[in-house]
């Protein structure tokens, strides 16, 4: 019951975020074809200073190729999904509307938060699958074969979004107000984007390592069409550990 209720509570936001990202996908695919036909992209790219390229995500790959165009598109998809995962994590156990009903049920606290976590993991997986299928269909329509890039990008994004969910859950179970929880969570989303910009601008190994988006939009995925399995496993394990800490904090939290 808790699992299904949690999913239902996010239906509107799931539909909204998908519509926004679907429009972004469609507009990018159409713009790529128009720029490619008119030969305008090269002149446009040459006019940008390095800092602007770093902010927009243009500095890593050749934007004249579809892979390069998709890498830029996926930066913004990643930011949206990571911020969403941080938000739903931060509000996981802090939604006032569900407080009176959920927490008076004869169910142990850890079972409540585990069911909510599983529901939100399902939501993140569903959004990733939906976007993967949509992108795959659009790529087939314009006759580009980037299935492995799309697949590995979404695998990494799903793992990073689990990390965001775990951090958000941890924040949400600290004794803070819900508005402050969401502000901190979205602030972390901004920090993740700033890390990506700095990593793009300086091309520093340490910044590349700690920037989640840099590891999603990586040369392994977009050039060799594989991904950093070790990084993925480490992030996944850290996500589990943070989730466990979040559950422990929830058990000790005054309701």
* Rg estimate, integer Å: 19 Å
Task: List the helices and strands in order.
Answer: HHHHHHHHHHHHH
The profile of the biggest β sheet is: none
Tell me, briefly, the overall form: globular
Poorly predicted runs of 5 or more residues:
none
Strand content: under 5%
Structural class: mainly alpha
Bin the helical content: over 70%
How would you describe the oligomerization state of the chains in this entry? single chain
Helix tally equals 13
**Strand segment tally:** 0
Average pLDDT taken over every residue = 83
How far apart, in Å, are the first and last alpha carbons? Answer: 20 Å
In short:
The chain has 255 residues and is mainly alpha-helical. It contains 13 helices and no strands. The mean pLDDT is 83.
């Amino acid at each position: 019951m808790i699992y299904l209720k949690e999913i239902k509570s996010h239906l509107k936001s799931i539909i909204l975020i998908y519509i926004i990202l679907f429009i972004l996908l469609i507009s990018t695919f159409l713009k790529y074809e128009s720029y490619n036909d008119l030969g305008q992209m090269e002149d446009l790219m040459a006019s940008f200073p390095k800092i602007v390229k770093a902010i927009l995500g243009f500095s890593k790959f050749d934007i004249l190729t579809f892979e390069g165009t998709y890498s830029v598109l996926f930066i913004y998809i990643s930011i949206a999904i990571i911020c969403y995962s941080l938000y739903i994590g931060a509000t996981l156990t802090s939604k006032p509307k569900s407080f009176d009903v959920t927490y008076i049920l004869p169910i142990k606290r850890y079972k409540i938060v585990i069911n909510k976590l599983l529901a939100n993991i399902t939501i993140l997986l569903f959004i990733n699958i939906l976007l993967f299928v949509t992108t795959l269909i659009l790529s087939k329509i314009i006759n580009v074969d980037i299935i492995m890039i799309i697949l590995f990008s979404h695998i990494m994004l799903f793992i990073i979004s689990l990390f965001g969910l775990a951090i958000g859950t941890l924040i949400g179970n600290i004794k803070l107000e819900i508005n402050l929880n969401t502000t901190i969570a979205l602030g972390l989303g901004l920090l993740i984007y700033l890390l990506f910009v700095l990593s793009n601008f300086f091309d520093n190994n340490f910044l590349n390592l700690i920037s989640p988006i840099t590891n999603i939009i990586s040369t392994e995925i977009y050039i060799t069409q594989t991904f950093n399995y070790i990084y993925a496993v480490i992030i996944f394990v850290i996500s589990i550990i943070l989730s466990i800490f979040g559950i422990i904090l929830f058990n000790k939290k005054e309701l």
